Amino acid sequence: MDPGEVNSLGEPYDYSSIMHYAKGTFAKANKDETIRPKACCPRPPIGQRIQLSPGDIRQTNKLYLCPGNYLNL
């Protein structure tokens, strides 16, 4: 994908996003990795499903033109 094909609203790539797949997503055995972050040592964790990340919240505020910077949704 070219950078011009993705609109992240000026935010950096968010490894902590609730929308990010886990590293074993789509694998036949969940222990297998199908997604691996390029960043080296230590690799950031991906695939959390607990809460919105700060980046998720910032992007949502920008997308919906929220007048303030809400910390939660």
TrEMBL record:
Pfam families associated with the record? Astacin
**Any one Gene Ontology molecular-function term assigned to this protein's record:** metalloendopeptidase activity
- Bilayer-crossing residues are none
Asked whether the keyword DNA-binding is assigned, the reply is no
Q: In the Enzyme Commission scheme, what number(s) does this protein have?
A: 3.4.24.-
**Residues in Peptidase M12A domain copies:** 1-67
Single GO BP term: proteolysis
**What is the enzyme's main class?**
hydrolase
PANTHER family referenced in this protein's UniProt entry, alphabetically:
DISCOIDIN, CUB, EGF, LAMININ , AND ZINC METALLOPROTEASE DOMAIN CONTAINING, DORSAL-VENTRAL PATTERNING PROTEIN TOLLOID-RELATED
User: What InterPro entries does UniProt report for this protein, alphabetically?
Assistant: MetalloPept_cat_dom_sf (IPR024079), Peptidase_M12A (IPR001506)
Q: Does the keyword Nucleus apply?
A: no
Q: Which residues form a coiled coil?
A: none
Q: Which UniProt keywords apply?
A: Hydrolase, Metal-binding, Metalloprotease, Protease, Zinc
Q: What is this protein called?
A: Metalloendopeptidase
What is the cofactor note? Binds 1 zinc ion per subunit.
Q: What cofactors are annotated for this protein?
A: Zn(2+)
Stored SUPFAM superfamilies: Metalloproteases ('zincins'), catalytic domain
